[in-house]
Specification:
24 helices; about 675 residues; alpha/beta; globular; 5-stranded parallel beta sheet
Length: about 675
Amino acid sequence: MPRRKWCVSRIDKEKASELSAACGIDPFASLLLVSRGITEKEQADEFFSQNVSFCDPFSIKDMDKAVDRINLAIERNEKIAVYGDYDADGVTASSLLYLFLEMLGADVVCYIPDRESEGYGLNVKAAEALAADNVNLIVTVDNGISAIKEAKKIKELGMDLVVTDHHKVGSVLPEAVAVVDPHREDDECEFEDWAGVGVAFKLISALSDGESEEILENFSDLIAVGTIADIVPLTGENRAIVKKGVQKINAGENLGIRALREVSGTRERILSANGVAFSVVPRINAIGRIERADKAFELLISQNEERAHEIAEEIDLANAKRQELEQQITIEAQKQLEKNPQMVFDRVLVFDGEGWHGGVIGIVAARFVDKYLKPCIVITGDGEKAKGSGRSIEGFSLYDAINSVSDLLTHFGGHPLAAGFGIASKDIPEFRRRVNEYAKTVQMPFATVRLDCRLKPQFISADLLPVIESLEPFGAGNPQPVFGLFEMTVASVQPLKGGKHIRLNLTKENANISALKFSTPYETFPYRKGDRVDLAVRLEKNEYMGQTKVSIYIKDIRMAGTDDEKYLRSVRLYEKIRRGETVRPEHAALAKVDRAFVASVYRFLKSEGGFCGDTDILCYRLGDDGLSACKMLMSIDVLCELGILKKEDGKITLCNTDKKVNLNDSSLMAYLEKISK
């Protein structure tokens, strides 16, 4: 049932031609730039420039106060505690500020809370422990903006507090010497999209009298890892940071990052920003999820190669354990859907379980978002207390949704696409109800696939690769280009070794191409030889035995000529009716099924021996353009209700029964008849 809406960028080819001539860049590169809204020479020059102008760090509100207090602490030889976070952004930010303060001769320690026992951000017990350790000044990185109660306690304990954060700012600021957060309403800095490590970078730039370039020479690898990890837009300063940092990562200067690359098997490869995101970042995150993040901090500041290797091996084992736990919880959550099929129609999916590992529930939520293409929250209970983590789709602010039920929560925080919170276990059912009630009040967007441009298959060659690479680094705000190959004919489908992936051979006119689709078992692939399909693909370099070729990777696939809008609105109508919500009679009529329609659906499924795939393919096989998707889904539900079909995890199978059934016995049929009147 789930599928994404395809959005192909509209490109002004005349503007692209003018940009190519004005900047002296490849015409294909200019097409890609224009598809991303870069239409003027000045924008393109800045995009490709190696010398980005960094904004004055003192233009960030309270930066002067933060610098003055830290410098005073160094002069007085006061003990400074860097208070970080357990994810890759927080750990790199902690390492960055710690190393820099140590270079200045400061008496500095680092404290990173334990995810399981302490949770995110400042906490009173940690503050008391730091006070007992004779700390005079606490400087937060990647947290602190919502620590109102904790800030008061820190003051009572006789310590000063400097907050540096990048999260959304609430109505009240914590009581501190300085609160450095570019999202403050009274902040006038021209750039605000830094990760937590980016704000820490601006702090140490300010401590160095604004010498950003010098800081990057020494620490761009750390800053890049945290920036990539936090999925902030790779535009402006972030783009410059990551471009410089990836070069430094490939040079292998930081012993810890180098050791992580070795255990991940990427030491001999030239990594891109995406490569860092898939090899280095998950391992740093994993240790904070499974154990304490202190090990990752120790790794990143390590000056001993042997010790760095030992820690990297431990972290790699933690990453493997993280994957096992993630898989286990995913299976258990999926079983909840099987026991309560009605739950799949919720606007926001909310799973809860007792004793699920809190360090991986956010990743599980992301898995379900990818599978069902709607916001998802996973909650783990521990007796009377519980905590949740959620992920969303672009256009639906999970932060706002959770904020709408904040009276049920002990604490919460996050971004539009990701958020976390604490809650009493008894309030989980009410939380589920009210979050979905909130979602009813806003326009739920469709999950999308954005295509930079259409591409003719005969133009695909290795010559395009350097042009695409010139747009690196890729990430949020500057995604890896996705191209549309339209009206392709499937010539063959081949399973690859292991059976988890497939290769498609496709043709169009005189062009023949081969494309790979990962994580798609051959047995469940619903397309067949002769189908005309549209493909959303990425083009990547494949080097083998001294030769460079282009590999085509399929991001998404659909039947050619699919009307996404028509199909998706029909599916949304189906979900609305299945939730029992009121619909207008003319809309209900689009869902009403008769005996002939149900019979046609059954005959097809019987001839196929069942079905596995999105409903749009089923519509196509039955000669429908997607308008009848709601009727198709209703017919399947009627047949399931009567025991003729069984629907489980996207697969439809026929039940072994010879009994005659009467469609009038279906309560769903009766309900559809009722609402259509």
